[in-house]
Write a structure and sequence with these properties.
The protein is α+β, with helices and mostly antiparallel strands. It has 3 domains: about 5-60, Arc Repressor Mutant, subunit A; about 65-270, BirA Bifunctional Protein, domain 2, CATH 3.30.930; about 275-320, SH3 type barrels. Helices cover about 30% and strands about 30% of the residues. The chain binds biotin.
Length: about 325
């Protein structure tokens, strides 16, 4: 008889080790079948330790993604508007899943996964997605007035994400333009916004958000990163509650964005802005330019002063000088 990896993971505990033969007896399969699934789970990044002579235990308690628990964390008015999130064990990318189904998907569709095999970051980078450890979240939002009205959308998503993290006790976080969530100078979460539909008419945005809740020590993330667990003294916030708060904050922000555009969020962004007043290097399409960051304009473009010249960037790679 075959067994699902999720079933094996659910049978493990962070409190006590459980031996391969106990697991096999509980799950009604052979020890070899258990071992095969444990190895497969580990390969996906699951936090399973082998305790010599005792069996397997989890490094920390696993909290599976759960639609009921997510809805419990949402504001009541929003629960009526949203359907159940589409929760997957593994997808290539939660954002790709929504983009592929965009033609038929309802407004505010949500896709979540325990792990992604091809998670995507900004600028063509990979987004490393170990199993069960973090949040991999995408939301599809429909807009009626064309893509031109969407400038600053990714900054608005960043503001909502900072609010949701703060709601869940992850404080001292801010935004590095356009939408990297940093704490202690390191990356805690990232946002990738992808657009589809008509340039001048009905269109949609898929807002993909990855949050590091518990980064495995050996995760190859390729940039200085931090997780919520270490910011909260080892106790990461509940994943399901954080997702419920994120949905609430995001949908409220998107409703406002449709009416006010980014201009209505300029002050909120300024409160989270980690670059303002700092010496930065702007890597733009025409080369590198040093200057002082001066916040964002009403469309969400970055303002940088280079000596006597004030420049505005819609898209660029920014690094803080001397950091
Ligand atoms: C960044 O580079 O900072 C953006 C990272 C966005 C990652 C998230 S994880 C959920 C969604 N699915 C993806 O493939 N990417 C986004």
């Amino acid at each position: 008889m075959s067994i699902q990896p999720a079933t094996v993971l659910a049978a493990l505990s962070a409190d006590a080790a459980v031996s391969g033969s106990e697991l096999a007896a509980t799950l009604g399969v052979t020890r070899a079948a258990v071992w095969k699934q444990i190895e497969a789970l580990r390969a996906l990044g699951a936090p399973i330790e082998a305790a010599a002579g005792k069996g397997y235990r989890l490094t920390w308690a696993f909290e599976p993604l759960d639609a009921t628990a997510i809805r419990a964390g949402m504001d009541p008015a929003l629960r009526k508007r949203l359907g159940d999130p589409d929760i997957r064990w593994q997808v290539d990318s939660t954002s790709s899943t929504l983009l592929q189904n965009a033609a038929s998907a309802r407004d505010l569709s949500v896709c979540l996964a325990e792990t992604q095999s091809a998670g995507r970051g900004r600028r063509g980078r990979d987004w490393v997605s170990p199993l069960g450890a973090n949040v991999y979240f995408s939301l599809l939002k429909r807009f009626g007035a064309g893509m031109g009205a969407l400038s600053g959308l990714s900054l608005v998503a960043g503001v909502a994400l900072v609010q949701a993290l703060t709601d869940c006790g992850v404080s001292e976080v801010g935004l590095k333009w356009p939408n990297d969530v940093l704490a202690d100078g390191r990356k805690l979460a990232g946002i990738l916004v992808e657009l589809g539909g008509e340039f001048l008419g009905p269109c949609h945005a898929v807002i993909g958000i990855g949050i590091n809740l518990r980064l495995p020590r050996n995760a190859k993330v390729g940039q200085p990163s931090i997780d919520a667990a270490s910011l909260c003294g080892g106790a990461a916030p509940s994943r399901n509650r954080l997702i419920g708060r994120l949905l609430t904050r995001l949908v409220v922000a998107l409703d406002r964005f449709e009416h006010e555009g980014f201009a209505g969020f300029r002050e909120e962004f300024a409160r989270c802005d980690l670059l303002a007043g700092h010496a930065v290097r702007v890597q733009a399409s025409d080369g590198a330019h040093d200057g002082i960051a001066e916040g964002v304009d009403a469309r969400g473009a970055l303002r940088v002063r280079h000596g006597g010249i004030a420049a505005v960037y819609d898209s660029a790679e920014i690094s803080v000088r001397g950091a």
